[in-house]
Amino acid sequence: MSKCFSFVLQVFFIFSVFPLSVGAERSILANSNATCSQTNNMSVLGEGIYPAIQTGSAAYCCDWCAENTQCLAAVYNSSGACTLYNSTNFTSKAGHTALLFPGQTCNTVAATDVDPSPGQLPPQSVAALTWQCGENVSALDQPAAESYCSSLGQDWRLPSIWELFELYQQLRVLNGNYIPWAYWSSTSDGPNSVYAWLVNFNDGSMGLDDVGLPYGVRCVR
Predict the structure, then answer these.
(1) What are the tens digits of pLDDT across the range 69-121?
(2) Apex CA 137: angle with CA 131 and CA 142, to 5°?
(3) I need a surface site. Which of 127, 139, 146, 216 has the fewest CB within 10 A?
(4) Residue 134: Cβ within 10 Å count
C-alpha cells in the first residue's frame, strides 16, 4: 500500500457527485481574530449546533463561533473541545468555559450539571489512523457506506465526524481546500435517527442529511 502523505495518513477516496445539502459551518481559522468574553465553569443548556470539535484553545473556539451565523455562544471544555450553541441559556458546569462576543448577554438558568452528549466527548487523534488509497467508486448512502468499509476487513470502518473533520483540517494545511464533495461519517443524529453527519471537504462545513442519500466515503482503521 503506497503512502499518500508524509504525515502518516493514507487516504481512500470514494468520490461523491453530490455537494453537502445542509449545514453552513466553515473550518476553524488558522489564526484567531474574534474576541469573546470568557466565564469559567459555565456551559449552555441544550444541544450544540454541531458535534464538538477539538480546537485546542478557547480563542479558536471563539473564532469558530464568529464564523457561524447561528452561533450565539460557544463552550470550550477542559478536554480542548469546542461546542457551538444557538442559545445563551447558561448553567454551571465544572471544567467548561462559556464564550460570548462583546455586547451579547446571557440568561443564567438554575444551576445544574448536564450529562455530556456523544458530541461533547474528546475525539480520537487522526494521526493514529490509517486511510487507504484506492480507486474511485460510486457514491453510497450511509448504511451502504458503513457496510462497504466493513467489507474491506482488517478493521476498516467508516470514520466518526471528528475523525473526518480532523482529516479535512490536515489536508487543508497541506493542499488548501481539498476536494469539493461531501463524505459520510458514522456519527448519527441519535438512536434510530434517519439522519447522520457529513463533512464537506471543499470548505470544512458539517451538516446532517438523510442516511438514504448518496455521498462520498472515506474508510479508516
Answers:
(1) 788 889 999 988 899 888 887 777 888 988 887 656 554 443 222 233 333 33
(2) 75
(3) 127
(4) 14
Q: Please provide residue 89's backbone torsions phi and psi, each rounded to the nearest 5 degrees.
A: -85, 90
Rounded to two decimals, the pTM is 0.48
Are residues 163 and 153 in contact, defined by beta-carbon separation less than 8 angstroms? no
Question: What cell numbers appear for 190 in the block?
Answer: 441519535
Confirm if 16 and 181 have CB atoms less than 8 A apart: yes
User: Distance of alpha carbon 183 from its chain centroid, rounded?
Assistant: 12
Amino acid letter, 149: C
| CA proximity to 139, closest of 17, 13, 32 | 17
Task: Give every strand in the sheet of 206-210, ordered side by side.
Answer: 182-188, 195-200, 206-210
3-class DSSP state of 121 = coil
Give the Cα separation of 89 and 102 in Å (integer): 17
User: pLDDT by residue (tens digit) across 18-30?
Assistant: 333 333 333 344 3
- Residues 37-117: name the CATH superfamily: Hepatocyte Growth Factor (3.50.4.10)
Of 134, 136, 219, the C-alpha closest to 184 is 219
Q: For residues 9-21, give the mean pLDDT.
A: 38
The structural domains of the chain, with segments of one domain joined by +, span 37-117
Q: CA 77: distance to chain centroid? A: 16
Give whole-number Cα distances, 49 to 74, 84, 152, 185, in Å.
10, 6, 33, 17
DSSP secondary structure code for residue 217 in this structure: B
* C-alpha distance from residue 196 to each of 98, 183, 211, 212 (Å): 27, 11, 6, 10
